[in-house]
Automatic annotation (TrEMBL):
Keywords annotated in UniProt: Repeat
InterPro entries: Filamin, Filamin/ABP280_repeat-like, Filamin/ABP280_rpt, Ig-like_fold, Ig_E-set
GO molecular function, one term: actin filament binding
Superkingdom of the organism of origin: Eukaryota
Gene Ontology BP terms: actin cytoskeleton organization; nervous system development
Family: Belongs to the filamin family.
Annotated protein name in UniProt: Filamin C, gamma b (actin binding protein 280)
Signal peptide: none
Listed Gene3D superfamilies: Immunoglobulins
Filamin repeats: 1-86, 120-214
Species name: Hucho hucho
Length: 214
């Protein structure tokens, strides 16, 4: 049973280190994987402590950060993902409002490997390809389609979301055609600018997020 606690799981201030503890004392050996999704990349450190691991991260932009904690495989610990609300001023000039930072701790070597991509080695979102008119243009009242080929990207989950000017997309359908090739269709109710996000696990695929004009 792995648990996590600390003020850093609930919130903090930009430019200030936020801290929390992952308690692995009641669990057997396993790899710890941490991913933080939010408005900015974060500087993340993970050190051993008597309970397990002490984690600090420093956010650089205000907003909501999603903290995913996995232990011993692909499964989230209890309460994960946690949502931390960060306040303060924006300390970086980034055009992206969605960044992913991650760190993995291998219990065999106690080696900490940090990356800003956020996925285990058996999954590689950069190998995913997407094509179709639905990636760039949408039409009201009909199904807009595109396909995603994840056959060369290892094992993971395909996550698709469409957000609109005022409300999210009415319907998104993901159909697995076999061999990790998917067909996605979505329907829209109003004109405007939409954002389409396609992720393979924790990582955006090349080109995501897409901007769709209706």
């Amino acid at each position: 049973m792995v648990t996590a606690y600390g003020a850093g799981l609930e919130g903090g201030t930009t430019g200030t280190a936020c801290e929390f503890v992952v308690n692995t004392s009641k669990a057997g050996p396993g790899a710890l994987a941490l991913t933080i999704d939010g408005p900015s990349k974060v500087k993340m450190d993970c050190v051993e402590c008597p309970e397990g691991y002490k984690v600090t991260y420093t956010p650089m932009a205000p907003g909501n950060y999603l903290i995913s904690i996995r232990y011993g495989g692909p499964y989230h610990i209890v309460g994960s993902p946690f949502k931390a609300k960060i306040t303060g001023s924006k300390l970086v000039s980034s055009h992206s409002n969605h960044e992913t930072s991650s760190v993995m701790v291998d219990p065999v070597t106690r080696q900490v490997s940090s990356s800003h991509q956020g996925a285990p080695s058996q999954s590689d979102a950069s190998c995913v390809t997407a094509k179709g008119l639905g990636l760039s243009k949408g039409f009201i009242g009909q199904k807009n389609n595109f396909s995603v080929d994840c056959s060369k990207a290892g094992r993971n989950m395909l996550l698709v979301g469409v957000d609109g000017p005022r409300v999210p997309c009415e319907e998104v359908l993901v159909k697995h055609l076999g061999n990790r090739v998917y067909n996605i269709s979505y329907q829209l109710k109003e004109k405007g600018e939409y954002i389409l996000v396609v992720k393979w696990g924790e990582q955006h695929i090349p080109g995501s997020p897409y901007h769709i004009t209706v």
